[in-house]
Amino acid sequence: MVTIPNLSQGAVLSSLKDALHTIESERVREREYMLDFFEGVNIDQYVKKFFGSESLNQVPIFTQNLTRRICKVRSMTYKRPPKMTVDKKYLDFIDISDLNSSRRQLEQLTFLLGTMAMRSRWSEREQKIKYDLIQNFEPLFLPGEKSPVGVIFAIENHGSSKLKKPWHAVWTEDRPGMPGQHYLVDQNGTKKSVNEGDRNPYGVIPLTFAHRYKPIRDWWSEGAHDIIRADLSVSVAATELSLAIRFGAIGIKYITSVDDASRIEIGVDKILYLPEGANFGVTAPSGSLTDIIDATRFLVEATLNNNHIRIKFADTRGNAPSAESLKIMEYENYDERTASTEDIWRPFEKQRFKIDKAIIEAKTNARIKEDYRVDFLEPDYPMSVDQEINYWNWKFDKGLATPRDWFDYMNSDSSEEDRKKWEEERQEQVQPQSNRLLQRLQDN
Questions:
Q1: What is the pTM of this model?
Q2: pLDDT tens digit string along 156-187?
Q3: What single DSSP character describes residue 263?
Q4: Are 95 and 355 spatial neighbours (Cβ–Cβ below 8 Å)?
Q5: Which of 26, 375, 344 has its CA nearest to residue 208?
């Protein structure tokens, strides 16, 4: 975090001068370390520290992407895109597919890192809002305030276009008597203007922040360090298991009381001759492979239980559990997810819409109504065909759903044009049946 005395450009640049030289802070390195486990990259270099180089020449390093799987299981709020009740003009100016995919990944990374940010960015080419996830940034605070008044983050470039001297975007929000600003600075504090007068055209910071839990002692929330440690421990244990299997299969051969190693030849087609008094032996791992596997399972189960997740290892016996029994087994996870929806993601959605609205109105002069409601949908549990038919028939009979609701449920990513086409085809199918019935009644 960076504290600035006031919102004047000189004060902001002066406060950022030292921060720009230490942008690779301990927090950034820690977050990159956690992202390595989420993406399953660079894990070998962390596992190698627990083994000698000779040991790892015997087997490949056996890594497990436990982190990503747990983050996905715990992040279910956006698994199904929520239903938004909002001004139709707003939907014309956002990329729904990009928003839904960004929401899902944001939830996973917020659980992993503790605090994340989503940037709402206007695309001149598409004339829509696109969404970027920002994992490394520094919030700016005025003395005594708990909410950021601004933010600075690096403009990321990848591959051959990656900048050797990256620029950082600075955004501050409007405050009474002090309009918000937007400009770029490099690591030397050199400023580059983006807009006339360095004015923030939106008046708000175009980033929406998400916290794993409401900040307590610090604005940043702690991430899933327990999962990272368990993931590393499981990878080390799995590699040790591979070594134990290999050494158990071939053993480590040794000979004692032989002064000339050149006389020793070993092979399946050779006879080993040992001089008098020499001994030949083969060692095997002292630990039980079953014990190693059970200990590894314990690490996984303990970590998952601490994160409100039940695990059932593969078992081919018995029938598959029903949807209702799955709900009961996952009740603790469901309860935690409900709390996260209300404490984190509903306020997040309201703030994101506020930012999107400001951007759209500034870029298009369109006026978007302030009414915005979001209905978070529960994740689906598998139902049999008969159960699903009965479920929808019951909703139709009680007036709780329409055929349009069924179509949206089955085709959540369909466009408005797809829905209209389906409605037309449905009417064409219903109309002939009505005409035939009417004709029969007239004939009689």
A1: 0.75
A2: 654 444 556 778 899 999 999 899 999 999 87
A3: G
A4: no
A5: 344
